[in-house]
Design brief:
The chain is an alpha+beta fold. It has one domain. 25% of the residues lie in helices and 22% in strands. The strands form five sheets. A six-stranded mixed beta sheet has the order 4-1-10-11-9-7, with helices on one face. The protein has a three-stranded antiparallel beta sheet with strand order 13-15-14, covered by helices on one side. Strands 2-3 form a two-stranded antiparallel ribbon. A hairpin with a 5-residue loop joins strand 5 and strand 6. It starts with 15 loop residues before the first strand and ends in a 5-residue tail after the last helix.
């Protein structure tokens, strides 16, 4: 796999991420179920300054190396969480894209859910030539304290997510097939879109491009075939 000169400075690039929403309160230590306040469907993830004033990187950085194809790094999902796609499913899906879209891709990592990361969980993130996908609850049910924002609800329902209000809590329920569809044809392709956006600089413009990319090369390209 080739990689271009811009990867040498990619460490300084601002990561792009698909947000799931901030955790709000635990629903019991055993179940590890949580209710989250609904937030924007996607947002930029940035490195943060910790209490000591040191820069805190949002993920493990993978330096670009000479390789024929991208690598997959798989971390344990974490207690009560699971990865919803496999390495082979990721490779098969990306093989369907035009080759030049993944030429510079170095790593796709299935990341773990840690206690610190659970404060601001994500579906996925792009950082330089690397893409990170995050686990979901084992139950495949996400729970929110408020009604979802319209765009969040529209996007999730496009891929088969089912919303219902139960006792004042909004639940987003997935099946094995619909969550794979969502991750492979939306989350993954959205992050690949960010990786291929070399023109836009503002958050709004980059999100607009990645959203278009996910619709064009994810949603439309995948309709009519099974995941």
């Amino acid at each position: 796999m080739r990689f271009s000169n811009h990867h040498q400075s990619a460490r300084k690039a601002v990561p792009q991420a698909r947000e799931r929403a901030e955790r709000h309160q635990p629903m019991g230590r055993k179940a590890r179920s949580v209710v989250r306040p609904t937030a924007a469907h996607r947002s930029r993830s940035t490195g943060r300054m910790d209490r000591a004033g040191q820069f805190s990187a949002p993920e493990t950085w993978h330096d670009p190396v000479e390789q024929q194809q991208f690598r997959c790094v798989i971390e344990p999902a974490g207690d009560s969480f699971r990865h919803v796609v496999t390495e082979q499913e990721i490779r098969d899906r990306l093989a369907e894209l035009p080759e030049h879209f993944v030429t510079d891709l170095q790593v796709v990592q299935l990341s773990r859910m840690t206690r610190k990361r659970a404060i601001f969980p994500l579906y996925g993130m792009q950082w330089g030539p690397n893409v990170y996908l995050y686990p979901l609850e084992e139950s495949l049910i996400e729970r929110y304290a408020r009604m979802p924002k319209p765009q969040f609800r529209i996007d999730s329902e496009m891929y088969g997510g089912k919303w219902e209000e139960v006792g004042g809590i909004w639940q987003l329920t997935w099946t094995e097939q619909t969550i794979k569809d969502f991750y492979l044809n939306n989350v993954l392709i959205h992050e690949i879109g960010h990786m291929n956006d070399h023109r836009n600089r503002s958050y709004i413009d980059r999100e607009r491009y990645a959203n278009w990319f996910a619709i064009e090369f994810g949603y439309r390209a995948s309709r009519g075939r099974r995941v």
